[in-house]
Task: inverse folding
């Protein structure tokens, strides 16, 4: 098993503990309109009895390093928007505006423009406005063409009926578009230690570099406002994998079965290069499923025939 994998598990536990400690003083800034971040995806702020604002912030992790090394930026902006908007979707919110933060050593025209264009295209796909941002040059922190980006998304949510999860409810998964934006520290470690030229290596009939840079799927394009009337909860599958993220959307102690029979072929690239089990992979990556949701079984026919949608489990 990868040493990097083992280290990342310890870091998650440590970070969760620190966040728990920080919340004790962070909450002192809240007023009675703050509804919190119960699901751990996006936070809610009540405007009135019928309307809440939801907010989410995220980045793209060390996928940004790979983008810089490959000089490939056409999809990294969608990664940024999707990491925020998919979290917002878990709170059943509609995106309304987005802001970005771009940090680098020194602004490189092509890099900067392509990233902003990628962010803009992604915002347009989910009917969201890119209304502002910040650009920072920090040569003492960033080297060469390396950069970092962060996104801040606000959405709106109308009052909805809470749908209680019950025994027999169905669990659906929507396919991911590759690795999305998680697990890239491990991926980059594999590339480095095995001296893999990802621009030349062909994997599953395509360049490995193309596979690794596939942008995160925008699930607002696949789930409509009408769909949300039938969906009880949603889980965005990011760092921590399938089970960890799914458990955030259900009550503690809820029993369920998830049937993930096989991993997509791209995970052979991981398993061929390090000693890691499927269970360990499911604690790091999305493993082919980027969004999970729960419905009453009587609504099975509304979703089962859709492209990219699969029935993957049941509430017990």
Result:
């Amino acid at each position: 098993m990868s040493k990097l994998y083992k280290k990342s598990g310890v870091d998650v536990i440590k970070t969760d503990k620190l966040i728990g400690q920080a919340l004790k003083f962070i909450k002192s800034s809240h007023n009675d309109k703050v509804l919190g971040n119960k699901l751990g995806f996006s936070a809610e702020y009540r405007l009135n009895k019928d309307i809440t604002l939801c907010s989410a912030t995220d980045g793209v992790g060390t996928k940004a390093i790979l983008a810089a090394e490959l000089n490939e930026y056409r999809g990294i902006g969608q990664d940024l928007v999707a990491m925020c908007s998919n979290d917002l979707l878990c709170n059943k919110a509609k995106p309304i505006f987005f802001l970005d933060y771009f940090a680098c050593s020194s602004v490189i025209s092509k890099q900067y423009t392509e990233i902003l264009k990628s962010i803009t295209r992604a915002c347009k796909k989910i009917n969201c406005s890119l209304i502002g941002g910040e650009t920072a040059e920090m040569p003492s922190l960033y080297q060469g063409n390396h950069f970092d980006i962060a996104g801040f998304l606000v959405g709106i949510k109308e009052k909805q009926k809470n749908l209680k999860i019950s025994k027999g409810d169905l669990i659906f998964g929507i396919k991911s578009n590759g690795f999305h934006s998680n697990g890239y520290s491990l991926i980059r470690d594999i590339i480095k230690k095995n001296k893999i030229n990802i621009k030349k290596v062909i994997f599953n009939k395509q360049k490995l570099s193309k596979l690794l840079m596939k942008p995160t799927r925008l699930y607002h394009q696949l789930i409509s406002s009408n769909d949300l009337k039938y969906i009880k909860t949603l889980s965005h599958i990011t760092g921590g994998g399938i089970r960890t993220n799914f458990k955030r959307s259900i009550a503690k102690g809820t029993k369920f079965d998830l049937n993930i029979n096989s991993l997509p072929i791209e995970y052979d690239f991981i398993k061929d290069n390090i000693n890691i089990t499927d269970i360990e992979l499911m604690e790091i990556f999305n493993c082919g499923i980027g969004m999970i949701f729960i419905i009453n079984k009587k609504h099975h026919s509304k979703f089962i025939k859709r492209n990219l949608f699969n029935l993957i489990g049941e509430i017990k």
